[in-house]
Amino acid sequence: MPMITVLSALALAAAPLPQGERLPPPDFGDKAIAATVDALLATLETGDAPALLKLVYPEGRVTGRGTFVGGASGLRSRSFAEYAARMVPGSGFIERITNPVIEQDGDVAMVWAPFTILMGGKLVSCGFDHFDLVRENGQWKVMNLTFSSRTEGCGA
């Protein structure tokens, strides 16, 4: 390689590159999936059973494994219809998810996210949620919600 080419390459390598523009992330439909999960969490917070049942397949399941508020541990599972029948408006229940991972293939999707649960403003439980969703007639609905649960090590 001639010396002039080597020197030119070194000069270019030392020069700062111009600042690039950030491109928005591609939209793979994640917003509609996330909106469905957010709406479901809002119904849990308000205790709005009829609104919950519009976002889920009633025969789908809510399944938890771990230690629950009150100290009980093990496996709990019931249909969304059974779960909705036990919802209590104004209970002070708040569930927050963070950093959700969304995967989608056609009309099937899953959301995996760490969560915390507050009751009356006090942190009482945490774990990971796994929502599986199915899109039917252009609308995402939750088929199942499976979660781990613990009452210790949840942070502040």
Question: Which ranges are low-confidence, i.e. pLDDT below 50, for 5 or more consecutive residues?
Answer: none
Strand content: 35-45%
CATH architecture: Roll
For this structure, the CATH topology is Nuclear Transport Factor 2, Chain: A
Name the average pLDDT. 89
Structural class: alpha+beta
Shape: globular
CATH class: Alpha Beta
Count of individual domains: 1
Fraction of helical residues: 25-40%
Q: What summary fits the major beta sheet? A: 7 strands, mixed
SSE order, one letter for each helix or strand: HHHEEHEEEEE
What is the count of DSSP helices, taking H or I runs of 4+ residues? 4
Number of strands: 7
Radius of gyration: 23 Å
- Termini, distance in Å? 61 Å
Care to describe what's here?
The protein is built from four helices and seven strands; from the N terminus they run H-H-H-E-E-H-E-E-E-E-E. The mean pLDDT is 89. It has helices at 3-14, 30-46, 49-55, 80-85; strands spanning 56-67, 73-79, 93-97, 101-105, 108-119, 122-136, 139-149. Strands 1, 2, 3, 4, 5, 6 and 7 form a seven-stranded mixed beta sheet that branches. The chain is α+β, with helices and mostly antiparallel strands and 156 residues long. It is 27% helix and 43% strand. It has a single domain, classed as Nuclear Transport Factor 2, Chain: A, CATH 3.10.450. Helix 2 runs antiparallel to helix 3 (49-55). It comes from Novosphingobium fuchskuhlense. Residues 32-144 form the SnoaL-like domain. This is SnoaL-like domain-containing protein.
